[in-house]
Amino acid sequence: MEQFVCVRVVQAWGMDLSLFQFHGQLTWSVFFLNADRTIYGRYGSRAPSGTSGFKGNDRFVTLPGFRKAVEGALEIHKGYPGNKAALAGKTGPAPVARTPEAMPAAAGLSNVRQADGKSHGCVHCHQVQDWELLSLRAKGPVEDRVLWPWPMPDAVGLSLDPAERATVTEVAPGSAAAKAGLKPGDRIAALGGQSILSIADVQWVLQQAKEPCVVKGQVERGAAKVEVSLALAEGWRRAYSFADNLSLGWITRQRLAGFRCDAVGPDEKQKLGLGEKALALRIREISPDFVKDRNTSPKKAGLQKGDLIVEVDGRKDAMTESDYLAFLVQKKKPGGKVDLAYVRGAAAPVKVTVDVP
Asked: Which of 34, 17, 206, 41 is nearest to 94 (CA)?
């Protein structure tokens, strides 16, 4: 650490989003930078709170893992600027706006408004992610990479050791990683043409990946260096529920859906006389009306906790809460409406129309 100039950024006001692109849900994120803004790598990872097998997100940030990422950054620095071209992919595409407060969705919010031209409130990193989603939605369809951001390696079948740079501990059978030939003990040295210092670097490559695509990589397997090709199918990001994302799940649920729900399991569907592939979303709670002057919110439409949604705009095939929220974000324009059918107790289905702000 003595070989670095360490800078701590405690809030996102004025943050240069053309440079600092990272998962907004992190408690702590590190950038290894050259003074000319070239990025050597990133550190800091967090799985969605509902991801199977990932209890205790703090385990992805460890002193041994951080130390090895630091050592890797110093190795890259020794080869600089000869390796500068190879680091270009670590800088992302142009952001929605250069700074968080310049995003359209941030306009007029209390924590970015400068009443006296000088003072301002705190802009949280998760708000950057929220405002990006809302700003893009106002322009048109939102890509999966915005709703399912910063995929953990388990989305492609990889479990990585948080105490190492990016060393494989498990490979899920039948996964994209298994089909690519990755094995426990492999250390991912490069992915997508980029050197890999940490799990966060793997997430960065996955975040930028298209759908579908093939991501080339190189792993160190003992003394050998092995080339691998990771084939990513259409919709591969949807391996987990973005509704479990602490911020994106909340912002879409509160602003657009107006309620929280859970997909009914096969046993309950059977008891209710529904088919295995039938749509069945049980409302867990109705949200307060977040948007002022909303004419027809779920609450005003008469929906209640415990109601079972069985149809969405004529669609009756199975949905998760994440699927429903994505439907609202990607298929419904601001000011649109969605037709729902719900069942309460043993009564016949009731149809209602709800606004989508």
From this structure: 17
